[in-house]
Design goal:
The chain is of the alpha/beta class. It is 49% helix and 7% strand. The protein has 25 helices and 9 strands. The strands form 2 sheets. Strands 1-3-2-4-5 form a 5-stranded mixed beta sheet. Strands 7-6-8-9 form a 4-stranded parallel beta sheet, sandwiched between helices. Strand 8, helix 24 and strand 9 form a beta-alpha-beta unit. Helix 13 packs across helix 25, helix 19 crosses helix 21 and helix 23 packs across helix 24. The radius of gyration is 22 Å and the shape is globular. The structure holds iron/sulfur cluster (SF4) (2 copies). One iron/sulfur cluster (SF4) binds next to helix 3 and helix 5.
């Protein structure tokens, strides 16, 4: 593969039929926005890892351009380099020319899923992931054997066997969150009234993985919103928002889920649809764009997306009202890529955390660099994800925090895995990894900060 930077190759004429099908191919104007300056390269995690042009944003845009001009097909290097992209959108933040790499990636990933035949083992592995994660009931059913397995894994012989699992299965196994059966089967109240005078009425997306494995985060979020003067509705019929599928190019099934969620939430008389998961928020804010060519849904999707807010946006807009108890400690905030880069929500979580008296907020070095979680990336690309996870863990250690907070379950699992149990907080034990809502909830209630 030749290097695109500044070469005449970037102005190739159309030499054959486009490799893309007619369903939303990448737009020519968006491809042409890239002036090949390379400012995005230092912030791209895969370019950082391998120093390979085709694993940089600029190189990937070049590949998209070649495929559009009929120079290359979608199979082979095209799929390989697009698959290796984390979809972290650090390049969107870095690009001075406003290149919409997010839109480009959103167009080409479904093209790959529709038109490229994956190897049987790759297909099987991906299908297994998508047959489980977007389904709350299946996740709950998996929680029982999961909890049993985690007990069994404490037996040295079983732990030894687990270490021998092949790459992707080993990655999946090591990312299994501590399973609490009680938590997995718990349900949020469908209505929680505001404490004191009502300031807003919101509906919460409870999520799939979030609700089953991080139910405590949802409980904390409902308590915080109510304490800050919000009536909180949690519609029982909601399901997965489709974010995992959308970010992996499984557009058709993601849009089926999007339409279903819109139909559930649009009936509610609320000011905002609130999410506490970075990946879910970024995809729900995109529904309007994704369904813009669907005559039945375009308007409804745009109206829905306009109401979606990350929980930190809502709290920062309202301003703190509930009294807080102090937290004396160093708190490292990790920007989840789908919150910081994709939604540009960076100031609000920090403002919310700073509302806790005595809390010392510390930023991480290389904060813009993805931790390697990236949806299903750490399962399908375990080696690259492990390198990025180890790098993030080293950056976390360098600021010696008492608590780490981040607003995405994938990041919590990935950073926790790479910090391991050897990194201790000042008061002993592993450093607590929490969602900011858990910390704020503990501060408002005046209870000890949870360990997880
Ligand atoms: S994506 Fe933006 S920063 Fe990167 S090479 Fe193109 S124009 Fe430059
Ligand atoms: S989304 Fe992330 S990994 Fe992909 S090209 Fe952009 S910076 Fe690199």
């Amino acid at each position: 593969m030749t290097t695109p930077a500044g070469s005449a190759d970037t102005n190739l004429p159309q030499t054959g039929p486009s490799a893309y099908d007619d369903r939303r191919p990448p737009e020519r104007e968006l491809l042409d926005d890239c002036v090949h300056c390379g400012f995005c390269l230092p912030t791209c995690p895969t370019y950082q890892l391998w120093g390979e042009e085709m694993d940089s944003p600029r190189g990937r845009i070049y590949l998209m351009d070649l495929a559009q001009k009929g120079e290359i097909g979608l199979e082979g290097p095209f799929t390989e380099h697009i698959d290796q992209c984390l979809g972290c959108m650090a390049c969107v933040t870095a690009c001075p020319s406003g290149v919409q790499y997010d839109r480009l990636l959103e167009s080409v990933r479904p093209q790959i899923e529709r038109n490229v035949e994956r190897t049987p083992s790759d297909r099987l592995f991906r299908n297994a992931i998508f047959a489980l994660f977007p389904y709350k009931r299946r996740l709950r059913a998996a929680a029982l054997p999961g909890a049993f397995y985690q007990r069994l894994r404490r037996v040295p012989a079983v732990a030894k066997l687990a270490e021998k699992l092949p790459g992707r299965l080993a990655a999946m196994e090591s990312l299994l969150p501590p399973v609490s059966v009680r938590e997995a089967f718990a349900r949020l109240p469908t209505y929680t009234p505001a404490v004191g005078e009502r300031r807003a009425r919101v509906a919460l997306l409870s999520g799939c993985v979030q609700d089953v494995f991080f139910h405590r985060v949802n409980e904390a979020t409902v308590r915080v919103l109510a304490a800050e003067g919000c009536d909180v509705l949690v519609p029982a019929e909601q399901q997965c928002c489709g974010a995992l599928e959308l970010h992996s190019g499984r557009e058709e099934s993601a849009l089926v889920r999007a339409r279903r969620e819109i139909a559930v939430f649009e009936k509610l008389d609320v000011d905002h649809v609130v999410t506490n998961v970075a990946g879910c928020g970024s995809s729900m804010k995109e529904y309007g764009h994704l369904l813009s060519d669907d005559p039945e849904w375009a308007e409804r999707a745009a109206a829905f997306s306009a109401r979606v807010r990350d929980v930190h946006e809502v709290l920062a807009d309202l301003g703190p009202r509930a009294p807080r108890h102090p937290f004396r400690g160093r708190v490292a905030y990790h920007d989840a890529c789908h919150l910081g880069h994709a939604q540009k929500v960076r100031a609000q979580p920090r403002a919310v955390l700073r509302s806790i008296p005595d809390l010392q907020l510390v930023d991480l070095p290389e904060a813009e660099l993805c931790c390697g979680s990236a949806g299903i990336y750490n399962m399908v690309m375990p080696d690259a994800a492990a390198e990025l996870g180890a790098r993030k863990a080293a950056n976390v250690r360098s600021v010696a925090p008492d608590v780490i907070v981040t607003a995405n379950p994938g990041c919590l699992l990935q950073i926790g895995k790479h910090l391991g149990t050897t990194d201790g907080a000042a008061d002993g034990g592993p450093i607590p990894l929490l969602h900011p809502m858990q910390l704020l909830d503990a501060s408002i209630r005046g209870v000890p900060v949870p360990r997880s």
